[in-house]
Amino acid sequence: MTDPFRSLMRSVYGMGDRLLELAEEQEAALAPILEAIDDTAQLNQLKVLAAMQHCRLSDIHFAATTGYGYNDIGRDTLEAIYAGVFSCESALVRPQMISGTHALSTALFGNLRHGDELLSPVGLPYNTLQKVIGIQPARGSLAEHGVAYRQVDLTPEGGIDYGAVEAAITPRTKMATIQRSKGYAWRHSLGVDEIGKLIAFIKGIRKDIICMVDNCYGEFVETREPSDAGADLVVGSLIKNPGGGLAPVGGYITGREEFVEQAAARLTSPGLGREVGPTLGVVPQLAQGLFLAPNVVAASLRTAVYTAKLLECLGFETLPRFDAVRSDIVQAVRMGTPERVLAYCRGIQRAAAVDSFVAPEAWDMPGYDSQVIMAAGTFVQGASIELSADSPMKPPYVVYQQGALTWAHGKIGALVALDTMEKQGLLYS
Ligand SMILES: *Cc1c(COP(=O)(O)O)cnc(C)c1O
Questions:
Q1: pLDDT at 367
Q2: Considering the entire predicted model, what is its pTM?
C-alpha cells in the first residue's frame, strides 16, 4: 500500500489510519496465496486460448444474427469453444438462457420425465432451485410434472454421506444434481476431486444416472472442471465467472451430447433444438468475456482471500478461512447482527462504480424465502462476478461476498466496507 493510495483513501472515503495500517500489516502474509491464484489463472488462460485457437475464432464470428438465428456460425463456434474449455462433447451457450437458474431448470426439465426421480446427494439445493424442483410449491415445478425428489444431507462435518446416498438411489433415480458452491449455506464448497469421487460412487451403483453439476461460481477456480472429473452435465451462468464481467446475459449447459441435446429441445422446442437461437450481437462480449474470465476469477479470489484475512484478524468467523483451498469465489462471513450486515453491504455499494450513491435495503426477492439484502453496484444487473455482497436477513446474519472485476477494485471495496462498519462502531469488539 503506497502513501499516495492511503492519502487518496483518506480524502475520497475519509478512511482512518487504524484500518489502513491493519490492512497493510495483514496483506504482507498473503503473498504466497495470491501467487498460487495467479498460477491457476495462467493455466486456465492457456486452456481458453487453446480452445479459441483450435476453433479458429475469427472476426466473421462477431456478426449479429436475428430472427430464427439459423446458421449462426458465431454461436456455433462459441459453443465449440465452451465444449473445448470444459473437455465436453457438446455445449449450449445462449443469451436466451437468462440466468443460472434458467440454465439449470432447462437441463433438468430436458432430461427428466414423469415418474423419474431426481437426487441431490449434497443437501438442499440453492434457493431458486427449490421452486424449480418443487421442494417449495411453485407453478410449473418438476414435482407438478410428476418428477420425484430425494435429498441426502451432508454430514455435520460437511462431508458426503455415502451410505445414505447409496440407500437413496432407487431404480427410478434418473439424475443427480450436485451443487459445487455453498450458495447461501454455511458449508464448505465441494472441490472438483470431491465431486469426481461422488460421481464415481454414483456411477458405481448405476452408471446410467445422469450426474449434473451446478457449477455456478466455480468456473476457473481450479485447473479442472467437474466435466474433467466425470460429470455428464455442467451448468452455470454467464453473468458469473465464465462471462468475465462482459457477458450482458446468458447461461451455459455443457456435457455429453445426448443430454445437451435433450436440454436444447427444452430450451427452444422439440424438433428445433439447438438449430435456432439468434445471438443478436452478443457473441463478441461472450467470447471476450470468456477470454478475460480466468483473470477476473483470479481478481475475485484475491479479493475473497484479502477480505477473509482482514475480518479474521478482527475476530470474525469466515468460511472459507483465508488460507483454505477454494473451489468457488464466494466468501462467507458471520456478522452476527443485522446492523453489521447492513453496514458491510452499504460499504460495498459505496465502493461501486455504478449506483455508489444508493443505500441497499433488504427486500423480498423472487425465489428466496427470507428478505435478502444485495449490494450490487454493477454494470450488468445482478452480475455477481462484479464485486457484490448479499445476505439473507435472518440469523446468523452471514454476508456472502463474491466477485471483483479487478483486484485493485476488490481491495478498495473490502476496505470501504470495513471502514463503513468502523465508522458505525461495529468493527472492533
Ligand atoms: C447463482 C447460483 C445459481 C443460479 O442463480 P441465478 O441468479 O439464477 O443465476 C444456482 N446455484 C448456485 C450455487 C448459484 O450460486
A1: 67
A2: 0.97
